[in-house]
Structure formats: structure tokens, C-alpha cells
Amino acid sequence: MKKVSMLAVVGAIASVSAFAGPMNNNMNNNNTMTEVMTVEQVRGLADNSPVIIRGYLLRQNGENSYVFQDSTGTINLEVEDSDWGGLTVSPNEYIEVWGEVDRNGMSMVEVDVSAMKKL
Fold first, then answer.
1. What's CA 23's distance to the chain center, in Å?
2. Helix, strand, or coil here: 18?
3. Where does the pLDDT of residue 3 fall: very low under 50, low under 70, confident under 90, or very high at 90 and above?
4. Cα-based distances in Å from 82 to 2, 36, 51, 87, 115
5. What is the pLDDT of residues 78-116, one digit of tens each?
6. 33-118 belongs to which homologous superfamily?
7. Residue 5, Ramachandran bin (φ over 0: left; ψ between -120 and 50: alpha; else beta)
């Protein structure tokens, strides 16, 4: 009797999962980003969404604020001293940035950086 009940539960879970829709291809099982996005794509994401972007740091825009650019546009990055990890970056060096979307109202979108590396 237990085998039949267990099969019914497994079948019910499988059918519910099928209706849940496809998983976001940009997320792995730890709910972290696995694919590189563009600045344009990042602008459309919800607050606190994890992101990976590649491009160039153009200039410093404030104490911890930097202008980042890829082929689709520019976005501000918030980079705390601890996020640099000893890295120095010039405007002509291609980098990869990990972080999360930080929305300050409807129009202000930036990336709160957690790490970066030169490519």
C-alpha cells in the first residue's frame, strides 16, 4: 500500500512541476547567475536580481560609483573598496562583473557589485 501512495505523490509532484513553466536559463540551482547579460537586459530586471555583465569601466562617477559600458549602453556600478579584491582597472581593459540590480525608483537602475575580474 505504501508503494502505491508514494507513486501517487511522486506523480502529483511531477505533474505540478510540468505546469510551473520552464526554469530561467540564466539561473543555476543556487539561484545565482550563470550567463552573461547586457546592460540593456539588466535595465529590465527586478531589484536584487543577480547579474553578470562584461564591458569596460569608463570613469569614476563618485566615491564608490563608476560608469560601466557594453555594446548596448551604460549603467552605474556601485563598487565598495572590498569588492575590488586588489584589482586595478583602466578604461581600455575588458572586465566581467558580478552583482545584483539595485533599483532606486522607476528610472534609476545600477548594479551593486560583489566581484569582478579582468578578461
1. 16
2. helix
3. very low
4. 54, 23, 19, 10, 9
5. 999 999 989 999 999 999 999 999 998 777 899 999 999
6. Bacterial OB-fold (2.40.50.200)
7. alpha
